[in-house]
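To the wet lab folks,

You asked to see what we're planning to order before we commit. Fair enough. Below is the target structure as tokens, and below that is the sequence we designed to fit it. If anything looks off to you, flag it before the synthesis order goes out.
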């Protein structure tokens, strides 16, 4: 057995989340949000499947990288913006069908505030996926 690196975990969790909701990402009216999106590792695959995706990250260099990757692929249904996941003031309540944070919330100074914001911006009946990892190492 080997430990997975964070990108592998993000990919697997995204595939798992998508497989649990068959067809959800094939409908372009479905809106998704990625908190702590980085450069788009989990956001871009959903956009390729037709979902409208907004990636939010506090790091401007990662937001810029995500936008460059989306533009390079010609994805007009995916955009990235800088923001604090614990204060999503610019996003309306009940906006997204699916809100995902893979490792983003666990590194936030106030992870419970991130969770509250995830709930706030998710539409009634929507889904929230939150992945965290352990900072301990195996010997």
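Sequence we intend to order:
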């Amino acid at each position: 057995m080997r430990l997975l690196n964070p990108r592998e975990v993000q990919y697997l969790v995204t595939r798992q989340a998508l497989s649990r909701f068959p067809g959800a990402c094939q409908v372009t009216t479905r809106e998704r949000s990625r908190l702590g999106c980085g450069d788009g590792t989990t956001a871009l695959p959903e956009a390729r499947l037709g979902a409208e995706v907004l990636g939010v990250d506090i790091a401007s260099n990662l937001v810029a990288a995500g936008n460059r990757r989306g533009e390079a692929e010609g994805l007009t249904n995916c955009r990235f913006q800088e923001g604090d996941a614990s204060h999503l003031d610019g996003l309306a309540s009940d906006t997204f069908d699916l809100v995902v944070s893979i490792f983003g919330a666990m590194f936030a100074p106030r992870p419970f505030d991130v969770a509250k914001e995830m709930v706030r911006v998710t539409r009634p009946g929507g889904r929230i996926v939150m992945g965290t990892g352990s900072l301990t190492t195996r010997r």
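Structural context that might help your review: Confidence is low (pLDDT under 50) at residues 1-29. The chain has one domain: 6-131.

Thanks,
Computational group
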